[in-house]
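User: I'm designing a mutation panel for Alpha-ketoacid dehydrogenase subunit beta and want to avoid disrupting the core. Could you give me a predicted structure to guide residue selection? Please restate the sequence first so the numbering is unambiguous.

Assistant: Good idea. Sequence first, for numbering, then the predicted structure tokens:
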Amino acid sequence: MAAPALERPTTPSGTQTVTIAKALNMGLRASLERDPKVLIMGEDVGKLGGVFRITDGLQKDFGEHRVLDTPLAESGIIGTAIGLAIRGYRPVCEIQFDGFIFPGFDQIISQLAKLHYRSQGKVKVPIVIRVPFGGGIGAVEHHSESPESLFAHIAGLKVVSCSNPVDAYWMLQQAIECDDPVLFFEPKRRYYEKAELDTSIDPLPLLSSRVVRPGSAVTVAAYGPMVRTCLDAATAAAEDGLDLEVVDLRALSPLDLGPVFESVRRTGRLVLVSEAPSESSVTSEIASRVQQECFYSLEAPVLRATGFDTPYPPSKLEEGFLPDLDRVLDVVDRSLAY
């Protein structure tokens, strides 16, 4: 079910330079202002403003009945949100770190994803689950996971990921407006990167991908934290006369692969990049679909630069685990070698 067009919030329009963290905060504020049924709930989201300060100031301005500090119980947070959604509210749940989502996994898979279907469309569960995900922050175990493929596999859930302040601001509001449950993955190591945000410009549809850097030599597609890595790789490649096209996938389920197909038909080559391991992943699905749809356009196999098929390593080893500019360019070179 597509999200309706957003009404303009009272957020001042015009261009300003903000971080992804600030843009998410602005998006939450706009949604709270727009709809009194929007609630925010999670561990330390109120007085503290969240461990990453995404919800900073919201409880002060909207009250404890709209921004709720919860016990440390992810299953309870999501289960309570399901009950609230059935009664007409639009809860936004924060999972403090990606690896903490698994105590709530059964509620998400067995209840949240199935209620609309189970009730033959009579029950809507417009819940957003915000998940700071991925590595690169030097954290301890369970704080740097990439579980997006698990949820992208589950029918009944929408899964999206922002990569920049503009998408953070608009996509979060669109997810809250959506009548279906949305897993909203936020690239936590990019939280404090800045960009220009113009709130007067109409956003793209929530479930859409887009070309963020045109090129002609190789298509490079990524999402979340890896989009910035791919853009940096494209800048480095341009110094050697190599023109990479970068696609930000944005939506992981359902996938919008039209721009990817169109790009691959022009370049003949595709490199997929993610922090998540390659086995049975979002990148696996994209590689399969591109092979089906663009077989006669491909000049090389679809190649990938991903995290390794191991548990996430200790923080002192994560630099070698995460795909970086050099690994992306190495895979690009392999593609061009065919």
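For picking mutation sites, this is relevant: The CA atoms of residues 28 and 173 lie 7 Å apart. The longest helix spans residues 20-34.
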